[in-house]
TrEMBL record:
The keyword Disulfide bond does not apply. Its main location: mitochondrion. It comes from Aphis glycines (Soybean aphid). This is Voltage-dependent anion-selective channel protein 3. Keywords: Ion transport, Membrane, Mitochondrion, Mitochondrion outer membrane, Porin, Transmembrane, Transmembrane beta strand, Transport. GO terms for cellular component: mitochondrial outer membrane; pore complex. InterPro entries: Porin_dom_sf, Porin_Euk, Porin_Euk/Tom40. Belongs to the eukaryotic mitochondrial porin family. It is found in: Mitochondrion outer membrane. GO terms for molecular function: porin activity; voltage-gated monoatomic anion channel activity.
């Protein structure tokens, strides 16, 4: 099995903390799984009343060993993206190109992405062209006996500046994942994911900034109560308690409820709530 891309290192723990939480919004997502996959979504922020929406269409052509994918995206900020990808030209190789047009800012960008994977290594090279001098984003992950080591760099050829320099080390077992990261030699972080049972997952996240000397600690869990209900909870060192649930109303309809409680100043308000509805047709 090929190792994950750099951006997916520690994903199991991040999903415990991020998946299923919607705060201060009403959210609606709709998707179809026909020949042309269509996704539409919208959010309304409860505090400001602002509404954002997006639309995505995806068309997949599977011809022998070749896989072609065409994706079109649009949102209410008038940002349009067209993406085309192909895999199967060579074993483990995937090539992608996309173009983005921001109508409000009258700006354009083109990005070319390449990916190579085998059982021991995952390589990614993204090149973004906003001008003649591109921004290069490169990453690599190497696997050995359950250990995953990766690095990621982002370089602006126009400014001749190294914008980011990140390292990560992860250990993956059957029901346990440990990941540690160092970003720009300033932000140090770590996460632990533990599958305690078929129904219960536990996550831990810590981080420390050498620049500001700020630190954070969070513990989260998700419990599959039954085949239709999943419960989630997390708390951090700022005494912010988040509680959420995912309820399968019926086949293809999922309701998400979430709340954020400021426990340190419980009587002063500042609490947030959110509702999400996902429809799969």
């Amino acid at each position: 099995m090929a190792p994950p891309s750099y951006s997916d290192l520690g994903k199991a723990a991040r999903d415990v903390f991020n998946s299923g939480y919607v705060f201060d919004v009403l959210k609606l997502d709709l998707k179809t799984n026909q020949n042309v996959e269509i996704k539409a979504g919208g959010t309304q922020h409860l505090a400001s009343g602002a509404v954002n929406a997006n639309l995505e269409t995806k068309y997949v052509i599977n011809k022998s060993k070749y896989l072609f994918t065409l994706v079109e995206k649009w949102n209410t900020n008038d940002v349009m993206t067209t993406e085309a990808s192909i895999s199967g030209l060579l074993p483990g190789v995937k090539l992608t190109t996309d173009g983005t047009f921001d109508r409000k800012k009258q700006s354009k960008a083109v990005r070319v992405k390449s990916e190579y994977k085998n059982d021991y290594v995952s390589l990614n090279l993204d090149t973004e062209f906003k001008a003649l001098k591109p921004i290069i984003n490169a990453s690599a992950v190497v696997a050995y006996n359950g250990w995953l080591g990766g690095f990621n760099v982002k370089y602006n050829t126009g400014d001749k500046e190294l914008q980011s320099n990140n390292l990560a080390l992860s250990y993956v077992a059957k029901q346990f994942v440990f990941t540690t990261t160092v970003n720009d030699n300033k932000l140090f972080g770590g996460s632990v994911f533990q599958k305690l049972s078929d129904k219960l997952d536990l996550g831990l996240q810590v981080s420390w900034s050498s620049e500001s000397n700020d630190s954070s600690l969070a513990v989260g869990s998700q419990y599959q109560l039954n085949q239709d209900v999943k419960l989630r909870a997390k708390i951090n060192n700022k005494s912010q308690l988040c509680i959420g649930s995912g309820i399968k109303v019926k086949e293809g309809v999922t309701l998400t409820l979430a709340s954020l409680l400021e426990c340190r100043q419980f009587n002063q308000g500042g609490h947030k709530f959110g509702i999400g509805l996902e429809l799969a047709l």
